[in-house]
Every structure is written in structure tokens, then in C-alpha cells.
Amino acid sequence: MSQATTSAAATHGERFAHSTEVEGAVETIVNAMAAQSAQITDVRAGREELRESYEDLMARAGAARGRGLMYPYLGSGLGNGALVELADGSVKWDMICGIGVHFFGHSDPGVVGASVRGAMSDTIMHGNLQSGFEPYEFSELLLAEAAKGSKLKHCFVAASGALVNENALKLAFQKHGAAPRVLAFKDCFMGRTVTMSQIGDSAGNRVGLPLSTLVDYMPFYDEAYAARTSPKRMIDMACEHLQSYIDRYPKQHACFIFELVQGEGGFNTAPREFFVELMKICKANDIAVWDDEVQTFGRTASMFAYDTLDVGEYVDLVTIGKMSQACATLFTEEYNPGPGLLSATFTGSGSACKAGSEIVRRLLGGGYYGEGGLIAQHHKAFREQAEALVARHPDWFPDVKAHPMSPSPVGKVGGIGGMMRFSPFGGAKDKVGKCLRACYDEGVILFSCGHGPYHVRMLPPLGVMKLEDWPRVFQAVERGLAKVAG
Ligand SMILES: Cc1ncc(COP(=O)(O)O)c(C=O)c1O
Predict the structure, then answer these.
(1) Could you tell me the CA-to-CA distances from 197 to 201, 206, 218, 376, 465 in Å, in that order?
(2) Whether residue 162 has its Cβ less than 6 Å from ligand 1
(3) CATH architecture of 42-107+367-486
(4) Ligand 1 center–CA 37 separation, angstroms
(5) Domain 42-107+367-486 shares a fold with domain 125-365
(6) Is 264 in the pocket of ligand 1 (CB under 6 A)?
(7) Is 237 exposed, middle or buried (0-12, 13-18, 19+ CB in 10 A)?
(8) Of 67, 246, 384, 390, which residue has the fewest beta carbons closer than 10 angstroms?
């Protein structure tokens, strides 16, 4: 517990949590983990004697979930920074981290220690009816940082990105008199509840779902178009588009959902002015500005991407998740809802909340942010490696078109901060898919993003990764791509 309590007034719970036995036990666990973890130092193939049992586990996992796993991945429960050990004894570079969850990598003593402490409570989960202080401590840490650059005042914790998005949507609907429509960008992704699957701009993710949510799609910033015309023309075009929706459906929009860097959509970025002009129109028309930071949180030049883009004054609702372990909806006083709108059995587990607080503290105190911060240094190191790979193998990297009709190509290496992408084989879906699998077999775990072109995506554990790891990671990438090219 983080409440300041004098030892005379300490509860039994606090005495237990801070007892020398518990402190010693946590230290013992973390030290034992660190001793094993230190022995994981490089990529290696699976162990022959574990192959059969591993295949059996894979088959059981596939049978339980009704379809096989995308990668034959089952963790052993141990790793070392950016390296992870699987249950067959193989070791791989983890450059996707559960799609952006393990920013502090595998077997990090601080994060594991916090999570073990979080597991010491009388119950596993905290809830909205009965809770320890852990979710509120996590909320306070987020709100203290948010207060520096926005009017965000309150925070509601929930267990996944999709759920905190559902909560944000409810806040927008309630505040705006149940205006039924939402605005979202082309290629956005928001999670996989029935409603979020409808808003997310991916037909494949909503096959068989009835469409009951009214969504108006806005163009995202198109770099190729801006280069051909001008950034101003691109922004004007988007503003005209927005205004035409507002004119078509006056007072019918509850919110505009912004991903300041599109995640699943392809790590697409846009200049500040693009967002500012759209947000100003929202403000003038009483439409909530909702910033979905589930993927961007922690990964750009500031902890909140809205700070990186300096648009904090406009945001009404912000959702975060993934690397924060516990997820949250942050909102201004104006959006504080009536009773009954937001609740759920669970807010999160003690482990997730404690680890989340540890992570927020580490993010803010670890030298990660700013122009010369660790995240910027890693992004530069990534670009150097990726660009050198493109230069060595121009035949693997033909031009990538934003869409088949587009007259100008997009960059072959892209992203921002801890969101990194490169685009082999023209961004063709089948080839990129093969690259992922070949790289996996060569010892580096990656994923894709984009809906065409398709890109190779990295969300690496920059919290613990070393700059000197990058050449080693790219050696494995090069081996994988060579297999696909050959
Ligand atoms: C921008 C964004 N919003 C929401 C979500 C949904 O988060 P979760 O998978 O935790 O429900 C994601 C997940 O990738 C995301 O990238």
C-alpha cells in the first residue's frame, strides 16, 4: 500500500506487506529469476529433447482455442530484456512484445518485483465495489502527469484497451445527449468488442457482426498527397471533409476518435497542424475530442502522445493501455458521468496495477523522453539498421505505394519513437506474411501493420533494450528476408 501510515497506526495488511519476511521473499524470487535470466544471452534453436512436448502443448493450445496460434509461441516464463525463452528452450529477440505490452522486456526485476508485491493482497482482483488503493494510486500517477499539459482530471481503470474505449464512448454519448454518430479515421483500430470492431476500419474484423454504430470515416493525413499538393491543401481537404459531415448530420456527432499515430493502420503519422485544425472544428461544434493512446502511450517523445504533438489543450477523453498493464480512461471534469454509467466487476489485478504504477514511475524518471532521450536514440539506431538493410538489398525493397492508384511511393522505413516499421517486397501482404514467419524461425519476433500496403512492425522493449542489440536483431531480420527473397 502506498498510503503514508505511521507504523503505530499500520494495519495488519501493511505490516504483512512490509514485513521483513515478505520483503525477503520478494527479493529471493527476484534474485532467483535474475540468476536464471542472466544465462539467456543470445538467440538459440529449440532443444531437441523438448520438441515433442512442445508440439503437444501447441496442439493442446490450438484445440482449446479452436484454431492454431499464429506463431508456435508459448513462453517458458523467463527471458532477459529483449530476449525471450520459449517452452521448447529456444530463445528469440522479442521485437513485438505481446503487441506493445512488455516495454520493459522479459524478467525485468523492477516490474516482476512490483507484480509479486501486487499479488500479496487478500484477493487477486480489485473491483469497482471493493478495492485496495492500487488502481487509484495508478490513476493518481497518470493524472499528475496529465495535469501538466491537459485538462484531464479523472481516471477510470479497466482491464483492456477495448474496455477503456467502450467507457470513453459512453462518456462521449452521455455528455452529448446521446448524439448517435462517431467520427473516426480511415484505417483506425480500437479493439474488438462488438462496438469497437464496428468503428475499427477493417472489414475483416467485423465479418458477421451487425452494424449498429453510426461511423463517419475521415481521411488520415496522406503524406504522398501532401507532397504532391501541399501540407496545407491536405489539411484543408480534411477540414472540408469534416465540415461536410457536420453539415450533413448537424448535432449528431458525439465524438471524433483520434489515434495520433495510427497503430494497426500502419504507423501513420501526421503533423500537429493537421490534428489542431480538426480538433478546433470539433470544439466549435461541441464534438468530444477523444485521443486513443492505447498503442502510442509511453512510446513517443513524451509519455502522452498528445504532449508530443502539443495538443493537450484540446483533448476531452484519453484512453491508454498495453504497456501500462492496467488500462485507463482519463477525462475532464465536464465528462465526469452520472452514477451508474461506468462500472464493472474488475478494475484490474493487484499485480497489473502495481506493475502499472512502477512502469509509469520508470517511464517518467528513466531518461526516455525528449529529443535526446533513450526512445529517440533507439529510433535513430533502428533507422540506421533498417536503412542500411534497404541499401544492401534494393531488390528486396521495391517502391511501396500507399494505394495501387497512388502516383508517389511512401517511405520504406518509418514510424515514430518506439513504433517502428519497414516495408519489404513493396508491402505485399503474402510476402510480408512470409517475412514474419521466416524472421520468427531465424530468431526475431515481429508483426505486421497496415491494411495495404503491409509493413513489418516493431514495438520493441525500449525500456530495457540496449543500443548495441540493434545490429544483432537486424542480423536475424536479414537472414529471414533472405529466405523469402531466395
Ligand atoms: C489504438 C488501439 N486502441 C485500442 C486497442 C485495443 O486494446 P486491447 O487489445 O487491449 O483491447 C488497440 C490494440 O491494439 C489499439 O492499438
Answers:
(1) 8, 6, 17, 33, 33
(2) yes
(3) Alpha-Beta Complex (3.90)
(4) 30
(5) no
(6) yes
(7) middle
(8) 67
> Looking at residues 410-415, what average pLDDT do you find?
94
Task: Report pLDDT digits (tens) over 161-208.
Answer: 999 999 999 999 999 998 999 999 999 999 999 999 999 999 999 999
Interval 20-46: pLDDT, tens = 999 999 999 999 999 999 999 999 999
Q: Ligand 1 pocket test: pick from 160, 322, 324, 448 the residue with the most ligand atoms within 8 Å of its Cβ.
A: 322
Is the CB of residue 164 less than 8 Å from the CB of residue 327? yes
Write the class of the CATH domain 125-365: alpha beta
Give the domain ranges of the chain.
12-38, 42-107+367-486, 125-365
Q: Is 294 in the pocket of ligand 1 (CB under 6 A)?
A: yes
Instruction: Return the bridge partners of 85, or none.
Output: 91
Distance 151 CA to ligand 1 centre (A): 24
d(CA 178, CA 377): 45
Asked if residue 200 has its Cβ within 6 Å of ligand 1, the reply is no
**Ligand 1 pocket check for 107: Cβ under 6 Å:** no
Report DSSP letters for 294-315, one per residue. Answer: TTTTTTSSSSSHHHHTT-GGG-
Of 257, 274, 324, nearest to 297 (Cα)? 324
Buried b (16+ CB within 10 A) or exposed e, 386-423: beebbeeeeebbeebbbeeebeebbebbbbbbbbbbbb
Query: What are the φ and ψ backbone dihedral angles of 192, each rounded to 5 degrees?
Result: -125, 20
- Is 187 near ligand 1, meaning CB less than 6 Å away? no
DSSP structure class, residue 324: G
